[in-house]
Write a structure and sequence with these properties.
Length: 296
Amino acid sequence: MRRLLTLLAIALISLTTHAAVTIKPEWSTPLAPFKIADNLYYVGSQDLASYLITTPQGNILINANLETSPPQIRASIEKLGFKYADTKVLLNGQAHFDHMAGSAQILHETHAKNMVMDGDVPVVESGGRADFLIDSGSIGTFPPAYVDRILHDGDTVTLGNVTLTAHHTPGHTRGCTTWTFRTHIPGDPATTLRNVVIVGGTSFWSDFHFVAHPGHPASYPNIGQDFAHTFAVLHTLPCDLFLGAHGSYFDMLEKLTRYKSQGPRVFIDPTGYQAFVTESQHTFEAALKKQQATKP
Ligand SMILES: [Zn+2]
């Protein structure tokens, strides 16, 4: 029944128009796929990160990116020697169009199960129209996608021999999700496992309102507390391999300049991870203070 209602809603909202938004060139510029760990590969563009986690029972894809991205992601998966049709689960870091717009096509083509954190489910199923930023015009709409499994904070996703944990890190979107799992990287002793952290997102811009003023509500209730909670959570996650929804979060292109000589070890960056979280937190706290001080 929920599927039928969703399809009806999709049919109705598909009649509304797309907002004009910025698409940065590096979001669609192709990048040769590369290995990060024994079972973890990068299949995204120069900045929009997409990750393939391989298992003997099929593969997990994290982030479908732009509406134009699925052919690029598919080409990267196949270049690595894997089958696109083996994609069994689709996950994401956040429900903005630059990570979500390709979902409907990938789900249609692969029949993967779409698993989304509860706060982002209405956004995914409405193609962005339920996003709290929709009226600002700063985010794009996209083809809606049905959600097969609704995730909650701390839920795990298991396929074959891999188990990922979904950490609810809200604020950037209401269901923003940071993914963690443990894996082996080439060159390490056989029994050594590394902690992978794939950050969902921590940024914001002038359309985000952390504080309610008369006649001017907060972007959504408790958005400020959500961001504060997110930084507290991110600080506690054990991190060896620092990854995220945008390559820019973890200086991917800079790290790739050393990849040829050092291999996947270039992504071992616990210090860079903590510095990223601390810097993002300070940026948020400064903006929060400024909004609190603003007289309406
Ligand atoms: Zn975003």
